[in-house]
Design a protein that fits this description.
By secondary structure, the chain is mainly α. The chain has one domain. The protein contains 18 helices and no strands. It is globular, with a radius of gyration of 21 Å.
Length: 451
């Protein structure tokens, strides 16, 4: 456990974020291994099938992961306030609400999967592979979610190291199972999906077992499962804010994917590779944002509003430092990365991917601020602006998919996100500046400076 209400905000956020950053890199590492193994042993069509379903994955799993992350921010506030009973009640509510929502979403997504694949224009030559792959992922949603719940709860009380350890173990198991199922047993694209679910299940079991031994504060008893409508509604509002934010981002990507799918297999493969690279470099900023959210949650719960404000500033500074490294990588390493990930010899695919990274990744200075503000606002229980920012992003991608991409092709896809980021940022900044407690803290500091 780590108390984030004491010590240098910059140091605490950095120490909290580093294991999350490493975890994100390892998560991307085995995602890249999936991509490489599928591309090398099954070909570009199979790789395109995985890419064509990525947005569905993001919408459904993104909502569930966001929901559990939002639930854990409530736990972080109770931990910061040193209220153990409320903390255990929030864990119990997390389990019940997550299980119920997961069941409903799993059934609904499987029932409407085929029509949804038709809506996003998945090509017939990859349709069966795409359906087979995403069906297994959706059936295993509860398994994938279990690790996220356990890891989020440990992070809520300041432990980011052990979730990393279990994720690393899972990553190597996933790679081994990928090779076994895809190459050794010739299970095709479904083998990669099974490998993902099984490896995630192992990391979930390890996390939960560790929590029971090391963190009894996170293990509720039967009495903590008593239904409290006030707590449930508050947690669901907080969780839904993060979940809807993630889901709207994913829904926008889903709509955008329909436009990408119309541009042909080369563009799909190029976009998959470019997104893999951009997401790899995005992960550290997401880690800083998530660290900032937990830092803000604990300090907000403890009434340390001055530290909340300082945490916002320090987390943004960290994202700007990382963005500089990102720009350098975008202009020097994209061709090598694309060829390594996809095993392609097609120069046109490499050229398309370079267009994306050269325009998109220099805009990460803006994106870093968005990650910090959006996560931080959820950490201090401000739900509206993060949802509003997700809606802005959704509208921007709808405009691109139905108006811009048909006119200017892949360039429409490339410019869509940076433009929406620039529009989203003022709304999030306003949300942070308008918070009552933080505003009073600023005024108090100004008055003290004048005395």
């Amino acid at each position: 456990m780590k108390d984030l209400t004491k010590g240098s905000p910059m140091k605490m956020i950095l120490l909290f974020a580093i294991p999350m950053l490493m975890g994100s890199i390892f998560q991307q590492f085995y995602n890249l291994a999936d991509t490489r193994i599928v591309g090398q042993y099954l070909g570009e069509n199979a790789l395109a099938a995985v890419g064509a379903t990525s947005s569905i994955n993001t919408v459904v799993l993104g909502f569930m992961h966001g929901l559990s992350t939002g639930f854990s921010l409530t736990s972080a506030r109770f931990f910061g306030a040193k209220d153990e009973e409320k903390l255990k009640e929030s864990v119990a509510a997390n389990i019940v609400l997550s299980a119920a929502t997961c069941l409903v979403l799993t059934v609904a997504s499987l029932l409407f999967l085929e029509p949804l694949l038709r809506v996003i224009n998945v090509n017939e030559n990859i349709f069966d592979d795409a359906k087979g792959y995403i069906s297994i992922i959706l059936v295993g949603m509860a398994v994938l979610l279990s690790y996220n719940i356990a890891a989020s709860l440990m992070r809520a009380i300041g432990d980011t190291v052990m979730p990393l350890v279990f994720l690393i173990v899972s990553a190597f198991i996933n790679i081994g199972l990928d090779i076994l199922f895809v190459k050794g047993l010739s299970m095709g694209i479904k083998g990669a999906a099974y490998a993902t679910v099984i490896s995630s299940g192992i990391s979930a079991v390890l996390c939960i077992a560790y929590m029971k031994v090391k963190y009894p504060i996170l293990i509720p008893s039967a009495r903590h499962f008593k239904f409290s409508s006030k707590l449930a509604l508050n947690m669901y509002a907080s969780g839904s804010s993060v979940g809807l934010m993630s889901s709207m981002v994913g829904l926008g990507s889903l709509i955008l994917q329909s436009a990408i799918n119309d541009l042909g297999t080369d563009t799909i493969v190029a976009h998959v590779a470019a997104r893999k690279m951009s997401e790899l470099f995005m992960m550290p900023m997401m880690a800083f944002g998530a660290a900032g959210a937990n830092f803000a949650g604990q300090n907000f719960g403890a009434g340390r509003y001055d530290r909340v404000r300082k945490g916002f500033k320090d987390a943004i500074l960290l994202t700007w430092i990382w963005s500089t490294a990102t720009v350098i990588a975008a202009y020097t390493a994209t061709p090598m990365f694309v060829r390594a990930v996809t095993a392609t010899e097609n120069d046109y695919i490499v050229e398309l991917a370079c267009r994306y990274t050269h325009f998109n990744m220099p805009c990460y200075y803006i994106l870093g601020m968005i990650f910090v503000l959006r996560n931080g606002l959820n950490g201090i229980d401000m739900k509206l602006m993060p949802i509003a920012s997700g809606f802005i992003e959704l509208v921007g991608k709808v405009v691109v998919a139905f108006w811009l991409a048909p006119r200017i092709g892949y360039w429409g896809i490339i410019i869509s996100e940076p433009v929406t980021w620039a529009i989203m940022l003022p709304a999030l900044a306003y949300g942070m500046l308008s918070n009552k407690e933080l505003k009073q803290s600023r005024l108090k500091k100004s008055e003290e400076a004048l005395q």
